[in-house]
């Protein structure tokens, strides 16, 4: 089974929307996975031309929310529980949800990350999530962030246990610093982007882990035990982050 994947399309920005209209994805699989940061959530989200295009060009498309989905005012509390939302007849937005297709188990989760106490001040003052994301009609806090991570991590661990199939995990946030860009090394706000679950992944039976979030296609093909780490992030076109984006990246699971 072929699975095409990408993330961080950021279609809320005109430059990204125009670029992807001129250089659309080149379908290489029946299944498309988008690992977060597609567009702000809201009344127009399901009506995006891109989702209509995906519906016409893929048998099925699975999308997870990144952090930016909630920058437009959509209250994150509406997505705290596991869900699967039909955007188009064959396009779905999911979180903390398992989908099984042809004996392949897909675990979908935004995942968030975990912020250490020593970095709370830097992260809460230096990361836009804590200014732009609302939860229960108030601003997101570090405690909220960590709670979301714990719920997501529990979901992944508990749902891996009964699986004997091939397994693909899809998250927005990075699950290991080994796939982070060296330029961010030592930054006190790294906790908002990456969480170190390296040992867990290395000991797992996960076949592939698809991630996004940092707008740097670092770590593609990295092996953690038997798990292959892959990403394909568009990033901000107006900041020239798109040059390493692939319009046709896919994995194949026999």
Automatic annotation (TrEMBL):
Pfam families: Metallophos
InterPro entries membership: Calcineurin-like_PHP, Metallo-depent_PP-like
MF (Gene Ontology): hydrolase activity
Calcineurin-like phosphoesterase domain location: 1-216
Name of this protein: Calcineurin-like phosphoesterase
């Amino acid at each position: 089974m072929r699975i095409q994947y990408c993330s961080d399309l950021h279609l809320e920005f005109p430059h990204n929307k125009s670029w992807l209209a001129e250089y659309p994805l080149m379908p290489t699989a029946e299944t498309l996975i988008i690992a977060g940061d597609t567009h702000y959530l809201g009344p127009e989200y399901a009506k995006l031309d891109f989702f209509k295009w995906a519906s016409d060009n893929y048998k099925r498309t699975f999308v997870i929310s990144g952090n930016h989905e909630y920058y437009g005012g959509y209250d994150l509390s509406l997505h705290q529980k596991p869900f699967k939302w039909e955007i188009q007849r064959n396009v779905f937005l999911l979180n903390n949800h398992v989908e099984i297709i042809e004996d392949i188990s897909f675990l979908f989760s935004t995942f968030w990350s975990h912020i250490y106490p020593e970095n709370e001040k830097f992260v809460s003052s230096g990361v836009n999530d804590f200014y732009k994301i609302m939860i229960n009609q108030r601003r997101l806090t570090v405690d909220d962030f960590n709670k979301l991570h714990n719920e997501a991590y529990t979901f992944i661990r508990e749902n891996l246990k009964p699986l004997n199939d091939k397994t693909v995990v899809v998250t927005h946030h990075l699950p290991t610093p080994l796939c982070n860009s060296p330029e961010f090394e030592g930054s006190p706000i790294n906790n908002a982007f990456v969480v170190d679950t390296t040992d867990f992944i290395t000991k797992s039976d996960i076949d592939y882990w698809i991630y996004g979030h940092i707008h740097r296609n670092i770590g593609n093909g990295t092996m953690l035990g038997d798990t292959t780490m892959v990403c394909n992030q568009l990033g901000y076109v107006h900041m020239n982050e798109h040059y390493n984006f692939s319009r046709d990246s896919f994995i194949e699971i026999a």
